[in-house]
Queue: 3 jobs
Job 1
Amino acid sequence: MSDLENIRRQAHEWRARLDDDAVSISERASFHRWVTQDPAHRDAFDQAETRWQSLGYIDSDQFQALNPYLFKTSSREHWNRLTGGHGTGAGVALSLMLLLGLAFGAGKLSLVSTPDSVIYRTNKGQIDTVTLADGSSLSLGAASEVQAEMTSTERRLYLLRGELFVDVAHEPDRPLLVFVDGLAFKAVGTAFEVRRRRQGVRLAVSDGQVQVLRSESAAPDVTLTPGQGISSWQGSLGNIEALPLDQIGAWRDERLVYRGATLREVIDDANRYSATTIALASPSLETLRITATFRGDDIETMLATLEDAFPLRIDRSSTSEILLFAE
């Protein structure tokens, strides 16, 4: 088996394991270490995610037929390993699948439903809010995706991309957990945001308390209170920071607030709103630090401000992308 095939096999194994209700925080941390170890791992997992979402409700024999390279050894043994021993001949509910393509209409939050979960998605430039089955209010930023699962003991949100803000309905006996890149944030009745970027994951709390669950046995859990935030990069938590409350979740009003952010982060956000791709043509611009507030619904003004305030120029000669060059 080639290195690429082995990575693809591992990606599908991780995708199957993460779909299991019994997956532990430690296993999620192991997954995070694997997926951030090599860009090829992330690419393979993203491809596996796309493929799983297209399959629907299948049994092991159907899955073998669709994924023959995964079953070069005993198909039943490999299927059981993929599903943590929970697979059956009658079929396995793959919670990110069975796409029904239900939508609330043009410009509204899109909904994909399975028997066990719901996936909410927004498009570029689209921000929306939905009330979950438990009464919690969930807001999604532009180009974001969240999988929601409700069980008798837990409420789970999986941030697949983008950002979310959740105002949690108070249920002391049924905590709400947000899972993202190997981390878990636990809340009962509170309000907070989680953002997933190429620079890592960021949690900020506007009300109540949120606990950051850590897999390392020697590392204590971290609890954040209103006006506090924390970031994680490749599984390593940073220090708790003080944040202005009015900046937490400001993107819900299309305010994009930056305090010492890199230009790379600003442009990544801009691309979640802009119809035309914006690219940094000069590597030296990547780490340029920005402290400013822009409007998500006015990316043109953002670009004009950046060109006026910083040593860069904007090239619009291409019809497919806007290029930023260092001067």
Job 2
Amino acid sequence: MGWIMDSLSEKVISFVSDFTRIPVDRIKESSTLFGDLGVDGMDGDEILEEFARKFSIDMRHCRIDQHFGPELPPTFFSLIRGLFNQPFSRTTPEERAGLIPITVTDLIESARRGYWWFCHNQSSDGSTSAKS
């Protein structure tokens, strides 16, 4: 790597690793919780609640339902569709599910600011704007 990770970034990545049980070296700042790390449903609620508690984040503006789907068991057809669509799809898992991705960078920036930063990049109608 050509950059040095700061202490807060390391702590957030370690937190995500502990929660997901994915090794730290497989988690990047660009990793998405849903698409890359497989966090969804109740786990999505739990990771953000634990993140807010551990890093003292004000989450009142976060709409979890925009980022994680409901806790549903897979059906036979959803498994078959997933097997055939994923290798050929040019869309992200979040786009296919109609969700807004949360990256590890979003968590790190929220930890730096002390409030849910990602949701502050959304307009009142819930649409997202490009981050600068």
Job 3
Amino acid sequence: MPIVQHAPRNAKSSEESIIFCVALFTPARITKHLQTASTLTGDFPPLFSSFHLYFEDVEIGQEWLSVGRTVTQADIVNFAGISGDFNPIHMDHVYAKSTPFRQPIAHGLLVFTMASGLGLNCPPMRTLAFLRVGEWLMSEPVYIGDTLRLKAQVVDKTVRGRGRRGEIKWKRIVLNQDDRIVQQGEIVTIVEGRGAKVLMSLPCKNGSPEPVTVPEVAPKAS
């Protein structure tokens, strides 16, 4: 059984420490533990704000369109350094002139990664895990200077963990500045649900785990 411990740096006694015993090691419970620790000690900021949506807040068929992001030479160079993919079709301007593209193109996985980033607030979800990628098509090249946007649609929803979290299947379409589809496919994520309110906690002076209801964390006034 994994143990999650937290004590404030300025704790003067064991009574000021918080010790949690996690009965089930799930993303939803880890999230709530950290939010509770933040509320009681102020050491950690909340993982999500009131602006982020729960599993229950979105419906099948809903769509969102992200803001744009322009692909730069620096994006391609940095991704090549991280991934190790220095294929000349991405890096060599002279060689690229001899290809059907006539200029360097962005890595397909770089575009996929950018789409993931654009999806962070499209819509802003309380995402706990990225589970899998379904069929994903890379249909058009992306060049330096192209501006990408992401269209996201809820395809399917499945309740998990008795409402503490849920599985969402998304249709994602990556568009360029001409509204041409450059990539598209499906992904599945795990999102926090409104049922994630009960934790298994172990206070310092208690010998066995027992459920404790955690109140909603009210946003702090700025």
